[in-house]
Description:
By secondary structure, the protein is an alpha/beta fold. The chain has 14 helices and 14 strands. The protein has a single domain (1-398), classed as 3-Layer(aba) Sandwich (Peroxisomal Thiolase, Chain A, domain 1), CATH 3.40.47. The strands form three sheets. The protein has a ten-stranded mixed sheet, with helices on both faces. The chain has a two-stranded antiparallel sheet with strand order 2-3.
Amino acid sequence: MKRVVITGVGAMTPIGNNAFTAWENATGGVSGVSEATLIDIEKVDVKITAEVKDFNPADYMDKKEAKRMGRFSQFAVAASKMAIEDARIEIGKNAIPERVGVWIGSGIGGLGEFETQHRKFLEKGQRRVSPFTIPMFIPDMASGRVSIELGAKGINNCSVTACATGSNSIGDAFRSIQNGLSDVMITGGTEAAITEMTVAGFSNMTALSKNPNPEKASRPFDKNRDGFVLGEGCGVVILEELEHALTRGANIYAELVGYGSTGDAYHITSPAPDGEGAGRAMKLALEDASLAPEQVDYINAHGTSTQYNDLFETNAIKAVFGDHAYNLSVSSTKSMTGHLLGGAGAVEAIFSVLAIRDGIMPPTINYETPDEALDLDYVPNVAKKKDLTVVLSNSLGFGGHNASLLFKRFDG
């Protein structure tokens, strides 16, 4: 099996329009949650979201082509261009186009574009519907657009596993390199689904926080948590076969050493009791990497700020790590970014990799009232410095999808 390293990162998030600004704000405990501007808040009972701010697609792509893309695809193109530049990869020069693949998923795709065109159809008839409607909203188009923009001719795919999408995409791209099918993979997750319908659906499910204070609303692991904050954004990492990276003198952030993916086979929205499926995903990632639980230093948790997720993920960590659960640290960067749905796992993978690089664990902000049932170190409110060797990132999605990625410091 080929070894796989991370050589580039790119992101578009509510706390920064590139990976490094987002990371600086994550370690600084900066919240990206505010009153919603992308929706008519008079139509819904939840008024807060975590939006990408000051995004101009024309800064990253042709203006005409940008108008033919969904916002989620625009995010993916922007983040991918940043990641490929960070990796110093020039497709066709230091990477063979047919050996460079793209695997970028989206949990929902262009729901906003679909809603806009549907309104036009109802109000003005068929002729007013854009001929680009279908390519604007189908979830695979983010991956397709990135392939076209960058000239990547290898495997081109899209995972759709709800909130596990970003992590599953990275894990599946990892396998492509491990198995010798690709030299480089441009991979991650993207989402731009802040619409009235999305908010209404999640709100009626009682999944969203109704805390009137935007910056305090996302509070994973806190006793008074009352739901997640809907966000948007994208994360893209460049995965590269180790020898390919070394040959061209690439900067290596970390090594991706383990991937676990499981199904709960339990419920469409609720996680399996005590996070049984999530626990198996973590175990599989450890087994895949041939690492012992005691070797993990930090976990970037799924940590949505919902009652069941935070409890069951905590219980799963205790089941997998035993006494070591109390020696490692766990935090949720969703406390700052909100929940990016299909983009969450990829942004959190970037944070995990940069945590290893910098030796710092980002905090769980808004942690004010401990929950008696949640008794791990959640890195409350302030980042902690620690020499990190192994970091685990969890993503759990509706439909019972669970994905865990295991990153390790690259020591040659």
